Amino acid sequence: MSAMTVIGQFKDQLALYWLARTEQERKYLTVGGATVVGALIYMLFIGPAIEGKAKLNVSLPQLRVEAATMQALALEAGELAARPAPQVTPMTRETLTAGLTARGITPTSLIITGEYAKIQLTNVSFANVYSWLDAQRRENRIGVDDASFTAGTPAGQVDAQLTLRQNTGEASR
Question: Kind of pairing, strands 157-166 and 116-125?
Fold first, then answer.
């Protein structure tokens, strides 16, 4: 059987069913069918569209604020990218010694080779070493390349061997 034959038979059966109904039954079936079709159209298309519009009306002001914030941040990022990188004071024996002395640390040895520095500290406060390293990272772009700490006899005292490297920013550009 082909699809056209099946459809033709279905139409014939539907026509017989329809003709077998009285005029009042036809009205009821027409109104009921239209009501069901209308309810389906509303549930599938109109209802979700109205609910979506209401949700968008509620969230739209917040989205506009977020968009404006993102545009302002993008503008600021563009301005910052256009600025030249700030120059960093080159790492020298004098600057490292001055920073260590300000924290009450006396290095056992301090060797500088190019952008690297090797520092050996004996019996120093770990908190002082940590705060000095943090200050060097923020102020002079000096990072720890290698570190070795050994706990000392009084709590909080350490022996340390540090290898520091200064990031001048030239390689990243």
Answer: antiparallel
Q: Which alpha helices (H) appear in 84-170, and where do they start and end?
A: 93-102, 126-140
3 state DSSP class of 148:
strand
**Cα angle value 105/93/154 (rounded, 5°):** 15
The residue among 159, 141, 157 whose CA lies nearest residue 149 is 159
The b-or-e profile of 115-127 (16+ CB within 10 A means b, else e) is bebbbebeebbbe
Confidence of residue 169 (pLDDT cuts 50, 70, 90): low
**95-134 pLDDT tens trace:** 899 989 998 899 999 999 888 999 999 999 999 999 999 9
pTM for this prediction: 0.51
Report whether pLDDT(170) > 60.
no
Residue 106: closest CA among 95, 97, 93, 114 = 97
